[in-house]
Design brief:
five-stranded antiparallel beta sheet; about 45% strand
Length: about 350
């Protein structure tokens, strides 16, 4: 029997329904409408945090090094962990309070935000001062608490998601923290700071909204520029000219042969012809599943030709072969005499099953 983690970390956001809604509302080359602008707000999936995939502890500041131990760990998706890596935090004293990991963000625009993280206590957490448990919190630059989640103190066999929301009345940086109060051991996975008042799916991509400029992306014949037309801050721009232009990011998504996952790749694209008399190839957003034996399969999202406005598209795909996966590559492409803009790119895992046989992949 397979292990299904869907109910643990799937939101109600349906990207494929969103694609259909977008198609129905595209009306030629008219201006950006309030209706499509509302669609753009659904299912944020931003992640303003750096190194949220825990490739190391870089960008994270330990709080309580003398009484707290930190270890990097590769975690199994069978525990419903959407990220590949986790941090194991071990608190050694019952009197520990607000010890853990913190990250200072860049300046955030005014608005509503939600911070979330997946946690799995490996032991019960016991404290002698305040309410024990693992929790997350957000503070302003002076240390004033803007929001705080509930606390989990009992050991779990699968990851649970903590979240809290806050509002910024003016643009400013914040501090996010993943804390443990009391003595115990806990795994932490997939932290995310995103726009909006509700939590969205965890985005496997680093810097999918390009707020951190080129971080996480290898770009050829393009770059990150200030965004024009809607309220996004930055966007990726590619200009093919006589050569191909692309940006690529590799996600270390390791699955064994007997494991299977379903993914959705989505994003916003705007195509801008340089010569109105010439019809060029449309921009492409694709995902390539890379298997351990060197083979691969490609899945792409399609875009409409009828508009030069921002449009949303998505493609849902799955690991279809009884082979090990070692990574997924996400490409943004543009060819020919045309400029394309990409923004708010997301790669999310919708479902996970394990202990499958080769016959299940036929």
């Amino acid at each position: 029997m397979g292990t299904t983690c869907k109910s643990e970390w799937i939101s109600d956001f349906n990207p494929m329904a969103k694609v259909q809604a977008m198609r129905e509302r595209i009306g030629g080359k008219g201006p950006w409408s309030d209706e499509t602008h509302c669609l753009e707000k659904a299912g944020s999936g931003d992640n303003f945090l750096k190194n949220h995939r825990f490739a190391s502890l870089h960008e994270w500041m330990p709080v309580g090094e003398k009484t707290l131990e930190f270890f990097l760990s590769a975690v199994s998706a069978e525990h419903c962990a959407p990220g590949q890596n986790a941090v194991l935090m071990r608190s050694l004293l019952t009197e520990n309070t607000q010890k853990g990991l913190m990250q200072h963000t860049d300046r955030l625009p005014a608005g509503q935000y939600t911070f979330s993280a997946y946690v799995m206590p490996h032991t019960n957490i016991a404290g002698s001062f305040e309410v024990p448990g693992v929790y997350i919190a957000v503070m302003d630059r002076e240390g004033k608490v803007l929001c705080e989640s509930r606390r989990i103190k009992l050991a779990l066999e699968r990851y649970a998601r903590l979240s809290c929301s806050f509002c910024l009345n003016a643009a400013q940086p914040v501090q996010v923290g993943i804390f443990i109060s009391g003595m115990g051991t806990v795994f932490v996975n997939a932290p995310q700071l995103e726009r909006g008042s509700s939590v969205g799916k965890y985005n496997l991509l680093t810097n999918g909204n390009f707020e951190n400029r080129e971080v996480g992306w290898n770009i050829l014949n393009g770059g990150v520029v200030p965004c024009i037309g809607i309220d996004r801050t930055y966007a990726l721009t590619l200009k093919g000219e006589d050569k191909s232009a692309f940006a690529v990011q590799t996600v270390q998504e390791r699955l064994d042969a007997h494991e299977r996952a379903v993914y959705t790749l989505s994003g916003w694209v705007r195509s801008q012809p340089i010569d109105q008399k010439e019809e060029d190839a449309l921009p492409q957003l694709t995902a390539r599943i890379c298997y351990g034996d060197g083979t691969y399969e490609i899945h792409g999202a399609s875009f409409a030709k009828e508009t030069e406005a921002w449009q949303f598209s998505a493609v849902q795909f799955l690991k279809s072969r009884y082979k090990d996966i070692h990574s997924i590559e996400v490409y943004c492409w543009q060819e020919g005499q045309q400029r394309a803009y990409f923004d708010d790119l997301q790669l999310v895992r919708d479902r996970f099953d394990s202990r499958l046989s080769a016959a299940d992949f036929v």
